[in-house]
Amino acid sequence: FWRTALTFLLFPILILLAYSADIGCFSPIMTRERATRKHFAMLETRQVDLDLMSHEDLAALAEEVRRSRGSTGSQLSDSDVQTIISREFTPPKSRAEYRCEATRRITGGRRLSLTASVNTVSRFAYDEAKQEKALNLTPKKATPEMRVEFRASVFAALESQGVIDVPLIRTGDTSSQLIVGYKTRDGTALAGKDYHEMHGEVVLEPGETCKSIQVSLIDDLELEADEDFFMDLCDPSCSSNGLAELGPTATVRVVIVDDERNGCLCFESETDALFVAESAVDEVHNIVVVRKQGAYGMVGVRYYTEEDSAISGVDFEPAEGTVVLQHKQMSATIPIKIKAREQYESNEMFRLILTDPTGGATLDASRDGGSERTILSIFIVADEVKREFFDSLVRLLKVNWGRTKLGHANWSAQFRAAVLVNGGLDEDAEDAASTIDWMMHIISMPWKVLFAFVPPVEYCSGWVSFFCSLLMIGALTVVVGDLAGLLGCVMGIPDSITAITLVALGTSLPDTFASKTAAQQDEYADASIGNITGSNSVNVFLGLGLPWMI
Length: 550
Hints:
The longest helix is centred in the C-terminal third of the chain and has 29 residues, at 463-491. A five-stranded mixed β-sheet has the order 2-9-7-4-5, with no helix packed on it. Strands 11-18-16-13-14 form a five-stranded mixed β-sheet, with no helix packed on it. The chain is built from 14 helices and 18 strands. The protein is elongated. With 550 residues, it is of the alpha+beta class. Helix 5 crosses helix 12. The relative contact order is 0.12. The N and C termini lie close together (11 Å).
């Protein structure tokens, strides 16, 4: 009797030792404190229910992932963020899940592995890379060896300047001679009255990457508004057999500024609203202030930011100061820092205001704010690329977490999963099934169909499923015990030998595969060790001790 009592007594001792080890009683004090803090931090992290998260919540979670990694967070790609969220916020797996996963792998049943999240992300990234590679393999037109264009799309010159240099640049191959034509055309400025008409060819010799075209301006004493004309490039060619083409800036706008006046100040933006996309890191945007209708003398203007739906210090850095433009200086910039806030739907707004011009300058009365103030409304909008990223992440996470659920929403799905190989959850599940999956599925299908009669866990909070499962397991245990006894009788094997060989093999084999699965999926394989030792210890201490005590 004392051996029976000792065997059964070892079971609560095992539980006490396991709990003590889990809370760190056998570790140094500092290590135990760190482990305890990490344990509770993980518990708090696991409380995030990704199934219930909105796009905004998921965007905030992605922002927190980047911020928690310090300086390296801004270097994470979208795929990296997807993988980190899938790994760190996966709900903890129980021993039952590992055992169920291993059993279904053996029998060709429906997969439950939570690593499907990472695999799906990897496959998603791989598919994108494969599509990109396919696009790269598509026959394309021959790539031009050189490109020529203007250095900028807009140039400004004072009327009294006399001559303006319009630079153009060449990129690509510079080993051969490049010839490109040019011609001016009127805008509000008229050839012969405001400037001299020009046309001809520019020759860039081998090794030469830039050259300027000089246009003569006509100065007069009339007070007039700013005027402009255009210059176009055409017909690029090179001396070798290579290809040459015009770049995107093949047309330049030249603005002639009347410099007899101090000028009128306003924002460069043609409208009174500016839209900027939020970024994963803090980003500085240079808002350009321009001087029109004159460039004489030094002028200045005071600026400051004003909150609206965007909050100072949260969505943007407040700014205040004075912009100064020297004599004949036509533009200056105001640096505005937009704070990093990854949001799915963002449409925050604040204002940048110009006021109190000095040096004889005025403000543009036609802009928002009138002649007293010039107001630029800056809207912080969500990046469309980020929106697509969050949409794809939501789709992936919703699909992946749906695959990990043990229960079915309806009874018919259980029979479908029992009849089809690998549960038939994916459209390509049958194509992805191996020969062993098919063989084990055919052998075990009668048992899977039989247990599909167990009601889903949605009924009565799972109690109906619990008691029906106990009845089915009890009935199966009786059948297996009788079959093992009959097999031992036919083969002349004593019942005790049959129990510790055939029956023990049948009960321990799923634990072995469950431990293998846990070792593959856990970072430190703690669940694998706990599963294999705990399972066998419970089988011996409780499985033998309790019947002997009874």
